[in-house]
Amino acid sequence: MWEIAEIRRNARLAKTLFILPPVPRKELQPRLRVLWSALSLDPEVLPDRMNAYPLVLHFLASGQPCMHLCRARTEDAYVPAIRQAATEADTADAAPLSDPAPASRGRSEDVSAFLVGFDPDKVARPRRTLAYYLQEIALRL
Predict the structure, then answer these.
(1) H or E, element range at 54
(2) At a CB cut-off of 8 Å and minimum separation 6, what does 100 contact?
(3) Rounded average pLDDT over 8-12
(4) pTM of the predicted model over 0.85
(5) Mean pLDDT along residues 52-77
(6) Torsion angle, CA of 78/81/86/89, rounded to 10 degrees?
């Protein structure tokens, strides 16, 4: 949420693409709640399609949110959605934008229950592969 607050503070909302990861719907809903809250967006202004997944969210120069949806979450779906959103963001008026359009604003809610803290002790350590060990042996010779 800090990152989104910085984007808004610097009035770069119209130049930012929010790319939603291909996670299960069960995990996607809390992520969207956090995003809507951080952006002060009313979730009702964006389409909720049962058979489509949100891929990319961006804002038009007017402050109107624009969500790119697709029925599949493959690389073939993300690439054109990101290109289209980037083109729209690139052609957006250069005026600074820090808030969504008034018609799309909602109230921020407490989403702290959905946030996860970073614990460096729980970071998965990369496994050393056979190639790593062979390289180590070669360096010692």
Answers:
(1) strand 53-59
(2) 13, 39, 40, 41, 59, 63, 64, 65
(3) 88
(4) no
(5) 87
(6) -140
Residue linked to tokens 């202004």: 45
Residue 38 inside a domain? The answer is: yes
pLDDT tens column, 14-33: 889 999 988 888 888 888 88
Pairing of strands 53-59, 18-19: antiparallel
More confident residue, 71 or 119: 71
Contact 14, 92 (CB under 8 A): yes
Give 57's pLDDT tier (boundaries 50, 70, 90): very high
Domain that holds residue 64: 2-115
Distance CA 120, CA 79 (A): 32
What whole-number distance in Å separates Cα of residue 67 and Cα of residue 46? 7
Q: Which residues pair with 57 in a beta bridge?
A: 18, 67
Cβ neighbours of residue 80 under 8 Å, at least 6 residues apart? Answer: none
Q: Is residue 103 part of a domain?
A: yes
